[in-house]
Amino acid sequence: MSINGIGTGGYPAWRDMGKAQRNGSGAGFAGRMADADAAGSSSIGNSMSAAGQTSVLDAYRASAASGVRNVKPAYETYESENYRIVPDNEAGCFDIYNKQGERIGAFDYSDIKVRQDSQTGKQFLISEHGTMSYDAMVLDGELKDALQDVMGVETLETEELSGFTLKTHSGTGIQYLVRDGEEGRGGKVLLQSEADRERYEALAETYFNKYPNLIHDKNAAYIWADLEIKGLAQHTKDGIVSMGFNGMSYNDNADYKNNWSVLFSENTYKAVFDWLQNNRGNAPEMQKFATWQASPVFRQIGELGSNEGD
Q1: What is the bridge-based pairing of β-strands 123-126 and 78-79?
Q2: pTM of the model as a whole
Q3: How many CA within 13 A on the CB side of residue 126?
Q4: CB within 10 Å: which end of the chain, N or C, has fewer?
């Protein structure tokens, strides 16, 4: 299990896609450098043609400048007490591992900067892989120093956290970071202490022990715990309610005939999410679809549906 959420054994899809893109031009960090180099070389050639001639010294300076632009960053593996930073200089990103050897994130070189939350003062390292695919972790002093050392800089660039919101799961108190506008699509769970890890483990154990017909291994239990913390799942007395930006469903542990699913708009998801956050005590009744017809959330869904139809 990863410190910052579900651990992954291999590289995510974005990583392989990123490598392929970076081998071309115009995409990713290395691609942008290559484009800049190509543009620079073209400018030099055009200038020489326009002038008709150039001095040996000018040609040398132009060649040297072009060579500098063509050099890719060449960082080396770095280890501190609790972190190991492994660069992929070809792909232009760092893989970061904890002291247990678990890979806790992959970050483009261009994403190595401090994002500071103005309300809590917490600092984050956030990747920008694309929609629904990003890594995020709380940036502590040790990791900040390690990144500065491996990159050979005195300080990391710092900016205010924007485009992401820090939220707290009411059931466990565990925080998670979600990209604004993607509340129904995912997020990144942040395990920041041993107490967080213990609560995370306990929630996963609940799923694993309570639903043997639905969950057959611990990895699946960790995934469900991760989803619940991010507001995308809820365990009930007899089954699991899962939800997302375009609908929700229920899977019964004992009788699949009790399963149901509903499709709705993303606006409706927000109403459902807010209702669930304020009515966790009603979780056992959520599994019964008939109960929802008389519930506040069902009325909200109906009202939203009517408004969308106008």
Answers
A1: unpaired
A2: 0.66
A3: 27
A4: C
